[in-house]
## 1
Amino acid sequence: MQMHQLGKTGPDVSAIGLGCMGMSGMYGPSDRAESIATIHAALDAGVNLLDTGDFYGMGHNEILIGEAIKGLKRDDFLLSVKFGALRDPAGAWLGYDARPAAIRNFLAYSLQRLGVDHIDIYRPARLDPNVPIEDQIGAMADLVKEGYIKHIGLSEVGADTIRRAAAVHPIVDLQIEYSLISRGIEDQILPTCRELGIGITAYGVLSRGLISGHWQKDAAAQKGDFRVISPRFQAGNVEKNLKLVEALRRIADSKGVSVAQIAIAWVAAQGKDIIPVVGARRRDRLAEALGSLSVELSAEDLATIERAVPKDAAAGGRYPEAQLVHMDSEK
Ligand SMILES: NC(=O)c1ccc[n+]([C@@H]2O[C@H](COP(=O)([O-])OP(=O)(O)OC[C@H]3O[C@@H](n4cnc5c(N)ncnc54)[C@H](OP(=O)(O)O)[C@@H]3O)[C@@H](O)[C@H]2O)c1
């Protein structure tokens, strides 16, 4: 497995991370035994970065990961955990809370659910507009000093917030959506991270399955699946987006690889400071994703891919408008 340092102050991470969100209901039902087998297969293949959020399945995802890592050597994996999203018993989203006391409370519960004494990278899932970022990072810096977290990361925030956060404590990475059809970070956010030595853990590299080559126009997403409300999966948009996938498929076929592998390899080719975190929840999908590590894209291949899927070619926003307006990264 190729390893890269995450940011200029972070740990060495595998060239691909495993995002575990889809194992806890965010993409409809998933199989518990297969999820755990997928985590084990990833670790066996040398993937050392496991990404989760305490709100994925309201603790379900952390408990699942806790079960998968039980008995393993703590140094063999890195846990990246998001906190701050508030949910109700039925799963509804209630906003964000990143007050210093709330952060300590969230962390206490995460450590229990995961069954570990520290978290490697801890990050607020979104910017809580009611708490200055300096106070959030200050509270996390105290947790670093106390040994409960090793590194501080950010998620879906914009350039100004990144600078303010980095002025308080080193930030190892920004987790943010980045794919062939979500390239917004290229204008300001990515250059800012590069200037400050902050890595990128890219999610949505397959646009939640849409550009994986496996999604069908009439694939029925079930209640609770994010794709039910995602603009890019809606009738009228999905057909246009799947045309882009067909253009990608022609390139993938010509190289003898899969569409998902091209999509992941394109993100990885944008720089060693960018680690794709893929959301495989089955071993076959994981194996396909890992296959992208041996896909080599020449400058000519990259240009062909970008002609097939031009920047801003996607139909529909990456989140519903009601969510986008609250995202610091979109301001
Ligand atoms: N910071 C944030 O705001 C944020 C937001 C979202 C996610 N994340 C993190 O990023 C991780 C990955 O992101 P994501 O799930 O949104 O995106 P993704 O990797 O773009 O999409 C994952 C989905 O694509 C489908 N797929 C098809 N072929 C695949 C393959 N070869 N490998 C992997 N998936 C394949 C799977 O759907 P089927 O299983 O239905 O086929 C899978 O659930 C999450 O697990 C989470 O940890 C962070």
## 2
Amino acid sequence: MSATKIIAYISAAFLIFFGFLFIYATFSPRGQIGWLIIGLISVIAGFVLIFWAGRKPAVAADQNVTVKIDLPGNVSMDTMKCKSCGGVLSPENISLVAGAPVVTCPYCKTTYQLTEEPKW
Ligand SMILES: [Zn+2]
């Protein structure tokens, strides 16, 4: 429930409550006919407010902002680590062999093919 709705419902509750008080006071010995009109308007305004708040769709529900950030296929080179020894690899350690990227670790000299989704 949004804040606007809560305010609307609280305002409506007050309007209806005081509206009924005015209507009730109209029939008291010192009551005035004018109070009945004020009371009725207040009660009607309260119900209109509830009706309006109930019908108005929540703004937050409509704004389902799904920001999808597509990560580039190539993982940032400075975060790459060797599968075998965990040594940090630089772009110079990657070479294309038969069209496939191959990593040659400068620390442990391990050579392996670079997969599309590295798990290191
Ligand atoms: Zn290594």
